[in-house]
Specification:
This protein has about 60 residues and is mostly helical. Helices cover about 50% and strands about 0% of the residues. It is built from two helices and no strands.
Length: about 60
């Protein structure tokens, strides 16, 4: 069975928020003397994720049809 994968689109600001939140979780786990390996791996994945330029289309959700 194939593993499900998720692709998120984050700008630089959102990426930093995710990394800071994961770092806070890692700090809490260290204080609770719990293993931090899964969080460390996730921080590494987010920090070293490849970048791709995308075109952002403005939202037309408020326009009348």
């Amino acid at each position: 069975m194939k593993e499900e994968r998720y692709h998120l689109t984050l700008d630089r600001y959102d990426k930093n928020i995710v990394i800071n939140a994961l770092n806070t979780l890692r700090t809490q786990q260290i204080q609770e003397e719990r293993p931090t390996d899964p969080v460390d791996e996730l921080i590494s994945k987010v920090a070293h994720a490849p970048t791709k330029k995308v075109r952002v289309v403005p939202c037309r959700c408020n326009e009348e049809r």
